[in-house]
């Protein structure tokens, strides 16, 4: 099961819950609350990855390297006894949670040290309980919830106590030590407690860039000897990394240096553990709980059908195979191989048309309201098509409409009087009326639209010819009607393939965000929704149909 399959298994489970809720909508509120609890569990699903180690080990640098950002403050010694959590957010922000019921406050990320450092918040005089950092990093969007704990063994004894008190909240641990002086007494104590609890521990030896290959072998040998004496040693894994090299390699897109840093190997194992162990267990346990609720709240044939669906889903989760509605990852090359995308902009072709339409109408509504010649010309061509007539009306004021349109009404009036006198056959009258109405070929604004559309597509094609990689990365969430025109204008098969794969990634991401939004709404956990999830429905409509009033038929 990969990350996408895990997400879609959750969504399938949410749909089964929705079916059960629909059958139980007439039950007392207290009984329905028991269903809502399961929605909440799905909506709040997260994986607490607690990062521990001495204050000088590079814990925050490691998190920055994994996240591919330098936005978490590093090099601050020592920190106060404040837990810093890092979760997904549509934009960078930090929220300070206080003790004693004081309302949380949002602060710029750059201001975070003022709340979590001994220098600016000595002895935690501000009474900060937790600092919550939100970052638009893909690995966080997929369910990881990093917890950066105060450094062990710092001169501030409260730091170590705070870290040790938080250990029960962990789903797994990342213990960060370093080649300089591996495994302090405080770190060994945390390792014993973590391994005794049966939870997984990722032991990270940081700063490998500061030692030779021989020194690495000696330190790794020593570390293995120390860990072999611990209970639950089979749940321990050792990774040698350079967080500094890993972050610099990600920022410079140096694949060779990134691999040498050891960061990708750690990331791969973190994700494997999340999927193979934690996530599978979570889904199977939730399937059982939904089945129990089905028998309790909707006995009989309905419960039997839902139980059959749940049983089938459970088998497929256990086997790690996709369900019929779950698809494996499409092989992707290039910069979007991770499935990570920047914030999606609306279709740029639609945007060109929208701007050109607005500018044309600004001039047109003035000219036909002030010029007799333009009024006659407007009347002779039958005015604008239905779509653009309404766009004109939304822009022009009542005075402009009342001065610009009488000539057109007079022309129609003359036609109706003359036709009424001759009284052509009734069936031909309707055809004659439809034949006189403006079309895409006769509407002056439709012709402007077609010209601008062709120019915008040509501009994108030129960008691909000049700089293929940047053109692909900078492309908007182009709508399907204009994507078809773009593909028809490109001769290179490889470029067309990459465009189609990119569109598949966009559609998958929107689909996931829409389902996440729906699940959080079902759970009455709207506060958990990201900006992308809130906007996913509207974004999906614009991707399918283009911007409003752009791709409609006249």
Shape descriptor: elongated
Tally of alpha and pi helices: 23
CATH topology of the largest domain: Rossmann fold
Radius of gyration: 31 Å
How many individual β-strands? Answer: 9
CATH superfamily of the largest domain, by name, is P-loop containing nucleotide triphosphate hydrolases
What structural class do you assign from the helix and strand content?
alpha/beta
The proportion of residues in beta strands is 5-15%
Provide the CATH architecture of the largest domain.
3-Layer(aba) Sandwich
Task: Work out the helicity level.
Answer: 55-70%
Q: What is the strand arrangement across the widest sheet?
A: 4-3-5-2-6-1-7-8-9
How far apart lie the N and C ends?
47 Å
Mean pLDDT: 83
Notable features of this structure?
9-stranded mixed sheet, single chain, 3 domains, Rossmann fold, elongated, alpha/beta, 554 residues
Please summarize what this structure is:
By secondary structure, the protein is an alpha/beta fold. The chain folds into three domains: 81 residues; 215 residues, P-loop containing nucleotide triphosphate hydrolases (Rossmann fold, 3-Layer(aba) Sandwich); 210 residues, no CATH class.
Could you explain the architecture of this structure?
- With 554 residues, this protein is an alpha/beta fold.
- It folds into three domains: 3-41 and 274-315; 47-261, Rossmann fold (3-Layer(aba) Sandwich), CATH 3.40.50; 345-554, no CATH class.
- Helices cover 58% and strands 10% of the residues.
- The chain is built from 23 helices and nine strands.
- It has helices at residues 3-23, 29-43, 59-67, 113-116, 138-141, 157-166, 185-196, 213-227, 243-252, 255-261, 263-297, 301-319, 348-370, 372-380, 386-395, 398-404, 406-422, 426-436, 444-466, 468-474, 480-488, 493-522, 531-545, and strands at residues 47-52, 83-88, 93-98, 105-107, 128-135, 144-148, 172-178, 200-206, 236-240.
- It has a nine-stranded mixed β-sheet, sandwiched between helices.
- Strand 3 and strand 4 (105-107) form a beta hairpin.
- Helix 9 (243-252) runs antiparallel to helix 10 (255-261).
- Mean pLDDT is 83; it is low at 322-340.
